[in-house]
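forwarding from the other thread:

> can someone predict this with flavin mononucleotide?

sure thing
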Amino acid sequence: MKQQLAELFHRRYACHVFEPGRSIASQDLEFVLEAGRLSPSSFGLEHWKFIVVQSPELKQALQGACFQQAQVGGAAAVIVILAKLAELDPDSPYLRRLLEREYPDEQLAQALNNYRSFHAATDVRAWSVSQCHIAAANMMLAATAAGLDSCAIGGFLPDQVKAILQIDPAQYEVALILPIGYCAEKPHEKRRLPLTELVEYR
Ligand SMILES: Cc1cc2nc3c(=O)[nH]c(=O)nc-3n(C[C@H](O)[C@H](O)[C@H](O)COP(=O)(O)O)c2cc1C
């Protein structure tokens, strides 16, 4: 298990050219989405929503909103990960429903109070987007496990993406765009700093 996971970490890479015309089996696509769904999130609030774009016209339009990065239009599927905004409001029914699930009755009022203070002191948009990035990391690894490739795309114009997908900006922010498919280029060498440069033991 450890060895398999290590291999997946090494095998996953950012794919910039996908095989044209090769679609993804629906069970593999669902496997990737399931990895997102099962991801951990702050307060257990599942900050994400996944829009799966497979229409060629919409993929091309999204490519335009991603500075013409060709891996967006060329992918078999483009998963647009949206970060919840309005539903994170302390008075929203969604928030109450999910906190009820997380906390037993006798702790709920205190949890809601704590959440209200946290929400007021937090950059909610950045917080929500950061939770979605956790889901994205799991989805990229799941894609590798399913024999697929992916490329996280943070280079996009959020207002254009929202306009193309008719997303209400009060409801959602665009967190990340994740094209997936079968890569048509050879993976490059992993370029990473050594642990000695990254870790301090104290
Ligand atoms: C949040 C995030 C945003 C990224 N945005 C882009 C992007 O817009 N375009 C792109 O080609 N790669 C993008 N990447 C991919 C990185 O460039 C790539 O992961 C990094 O260079 C390491 O290479 P590797 O993933 O192949 O190991 C992004 C990665 C992350 C995690």
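The mean pLDDT is 97. thats all i got for now
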